[in-house]
Amino acid sequence: MYCLVVSEEEYTSAKEFLRRINMYKSYSMELAGRTLTVDIGRVAAQANGAVFIKYGDTTVLSTATASDKPRDGVDFFPLSVEFEEKMYSVGKIPGGFNKREGKASENAILTDRVIDRPMRPLFPKDYRNDVTLNNLVMSVDPECRPEIVAMIGTALAVHISDIPFDGPCAMTQMGLVDGEFIVNPSQKQWDEGDLQLTVASTKEKVIMIEAGANEIPEDQMIEAIYKCHDINQTVIAFMDQIRDEIGKPKHEYESCAIPEQMFEDIKKIVTPEQMEEAVFTDEKQKREENIRAITEQLEEAFADNEEYLAVLGEAIYQYQKKTVRKMILKDHKRPDGRAINQIRPLAAEVDLIPRVHGSAMFTRGQTQICDVVTLAPLSEIQKIDGLDANITTKRYMHHYNFPAYSVGETKVSRGPGRREIGHGALAEKALVPVLPSIEEFPYTIRAVSETFESNGSTSMASTCASCMSLMAAGVPIKAMVAGISCGLVTGDTDDDFLVLTDIQGLEDFFGDMDFKVTGTHKGITAIQMDIKIHGLTRPIVEEAIARTREARLYIMDEVMSKAIAEPRKEVNEWAPKIEQITIDPSKIGDVVGQKGKTINEIIDRTGVKIDITDDGAVSVCGTDKEMIAKAIDMIKIITTDFEQGQILEGTVVSIKEFGAFIEFAPGKEGMVHISKIAKERINRVEDVLTLGDKVKVVCLGKDKMGRISFSMKDVKED
C-alpha cells in the first residue's frame, strides 16, 4: 500500500477534478434515425443548468441561468433567449472588415423567438427573477439542423436546473418531400420541401406551432402537427429520465402574486360592473381613458397604503383580465360587442401612394397597414452570411415597421426590434409560396409594411396588404393570400374553452392564445401560434384552423378581390422594366470585355443595368424600353457569330486607305473594303464616309484568310 503526500492546494485541485468526473453523465437516445447525445456536468458547471448536446455532428451548448432575486421595480418576467451562431461551426470566417461575429442575424432572432414561445408559459406566473437561456452553436451537420438541437437543449437545461419550471417541453420539426413526411429533416430537405413545421409539446398538449408551407391542406397540416406531438412524447420521456437521475431541487423564490385581500379592497371601490363598463367598448382610446380614470380613483383611495400602491398597476391589469375573460367565456360577450366568429369591419384599397412601384392599404377595425412594394434588378438581391450553406441569397424581402404613433405612444424609433423582425418574417413566409420564379419574373422584390394603427394582429393585416401591393405592382403571384388570427379563453377544464375569430389587442393581452394562419383558397402557407397556458388540446387546434380558413376566404373573396382581383399584366410605369435573354456561357467574357470595358460601354450608351449569371442568363433592366431593346441588340451582336447574308447597322469608327471599320456593338467591329462601299468606283473612302456615320452592311462570309467581309453596296434596298 502506498501513501502519496501532497500539498493542500494540490489536494483541493484533485478533489475538484474527481468531483467533476463524478458529476459527468452522458445519455443517448435514437431520434428519427440519428443519435441524440446529451452530456451533463462536462462543461459550464457554474450555470444553473447546462447541456452539451449533439445530434449527428451538430453540437450545441445550452445553458440556463437565473438571478438570485428579482431586480427592484420589475413587474414582469425578464426572460432572455439567445441563439449564438458561430461561423467556425461551418468552417467559415465572418465576412466584412470586422472578422468576428456581430449582432444576431435574422435567423438567430427568429430562432430565439421560436424557443421563447413554448418556454415562457412554463415558468411560474409570479416569478420575477432574471432568466437567460443561451445556445452556443459550435458545430453544424447539414443533416441535423442546429435550431432543433438548441430547442431540445434549452428545455432540458432548465428541466435539470434549480430554476422553477413546469416543463419539460420537447420540439420536433417536420418536412414534406415528394408527399412524404420527414421527421427532423436535413437542411436541404427543409429548404426544398413543401413544409417547414416546428411543433413544441408538453406531456399532454401542443404548446407552440410555427410553420411555413406550400399551400398545404388543413387536414394534412393537422396530421403533421400531431405526428410531431407524438414524437415529442419520446423526447420528454428521455428528459424526465435524466431529470430523475441528476436534476437539482427547484429553488425557492419571492412570489410577486397580488394578495387576494387587495382585490377585495379594490372591488369595494370599483365594482365588477363598473370595470366591465370601463373595458367593454369598441374604441381602444376610450377604454384607455376609462382605465386611467379608475387608476386615478384607486391611487387616491390607497394614497396612504404604500404596499398597495407599489403593485397597483399589476392589480388593475389582473382585474381587467378577470373581467374580460369571465364575460367572454361565460356570457359570450366580447369587449367590442362582436359575435364570437365575427371579423371587425374591413377595408382595402390599392395605389394610394404615387410614384412607388406598388402600394396597398388594409384596414381591420383599428388595425391599419400600408404596404409598399419596390422592384429592382437581380443585382439588388440580399446576400446572406449564415450557417445554412444552401441559402446564400434572398430575392424577396418583407420588412415590417411598428412606430410608436400606431398605438398613440411617444417613443423615439431605435430601428427594428425582435418583434418587428418576427412579424416581417411571418408575412414573408406567408407569401413566398405564391411568388413567381426568377425565370418567370427576374426581379428582386422588397415589400415594406408600415403600421399606421395597431389594435391586434398587424402581421396578418401585413400579409393581406402585401399581397394586394404585389398584385398592384404587377408581380404575377400564383394565388391570393390572406391571414387572420384566432384567440382563446379557457376555463377550469379542457372542455371549457371559447375560440375567438379576429382578436383585437385586449383579447390578445387577456386571452390565452394568438393563433395566426395565412393561406390561399387551396391551403395554408404559414402558421404562428403563441399561447400563455400549458398547451392546447386537439379540439382547440382543429377549431382554430377551421375558423381561420373560413375567415381568410371571406377576406379574400369579399374584401381584397374587390380592391384588386388579380395581378396587373405589366409592372407599374415607375418600376424598372427587365428583359431577359440567354447567351452561350462561353460568350460571357465577350460581353463583359477586358476589365469590364465592353459591358460598361453598353451601360453608358443605354443607361440600363445588366446582370449576367454563370449559366448565361442575362437580365437587362431600365425604365426606357427602347434603350433596353438597344442594349439587348448589342449583346446579341456581341455573342452571335456573323453569318452570310446577315444585315447589320453600325457606326464608322475608323477610316483607312483600303476601307472603313464599322462598330456594330461595343468591342465588335468589322471592315468594309473600299471596293464594297459604293456601287460606283470611288478613289477615297472619305468621299463617301465620315467618322460617326450610321451605315448598313451585309455579311459576305469569310475571305481566304478566314476573315469576315462586309459590304455596303450589296445591301438590298428593301
Automatic annotation (TrEMBL):
Its EC number is 2.7.7.8. PROSITE patterns: KH_TYPE_1, KIX, S1. Residues 245-324 form the KIX domain. Mg(2+) binds at D508, D514. It is found in: Cytoplasm. It catalyses: RNA(n+1) + phosphate = RNA(n) + a ribonucleoside 5'-diphosphate. SUPFAM superfamilies: Eukaryotic type KH-domain (KH-domain type I), Nucleic acid-binding proteins, Polynucleotide phosphorylase/guanosine pentaphosphate synthase (PNPase/GPSI), domain 3, Ribonuclease PH domain 2-like, Ribosomal protein S5 domain 2-like. GO terms for biological process: mRNA catabolic process; regulation of DNA-templated transcription; RNA processing. InterPro entries: ExoRNase_PH_dom1, ExoRNase_PH_dom2, ExoRNase_PH_dom2_sf, KH_dom, KH_dom_type_1, KH_dom_type_1_sf, KIX_dom, NA-bd_OB-fold. GO terms for molecular function: 3'-5'-RNA exonuclease activity; magnesium ion binding; polyribonucleotide nucleotidyltransferase activity; RNA binding; transcription coregulator activity. Its cofactor is Mg(2+). Its main location: cytoplasm. Residues 645-713 form the S1 motif domain. Keywords: Cytoplasm, Magnesium, Metal-binding, Nucleotidyltransferase, RNA-binding, Transferase. It holds the Pfam family RNase_PH. HAMAP family: PNPase (MF_01595). NCBIfam families: polynuc_phos, PRK11824.1. Belongs to the polyribonucleotide nucleotidyltransferase family. Involved in mRNA degradation. Catalyzes the phosphorolysis of single-stranded polyribonucleotides processively in the 3'- to 5'-direction. This is Polyribonucleotide nucleotidyltransferase. It comes from Agathobacter rectalis (strain ATCC 33656 / DSM 3377 / JCM 17463 / KCTC 5835 / VPI 0990). The lineage of its organism: Bacteria, Bacillati, Bacillota, Clostridia, Lachnospirales. The gene is pnp.
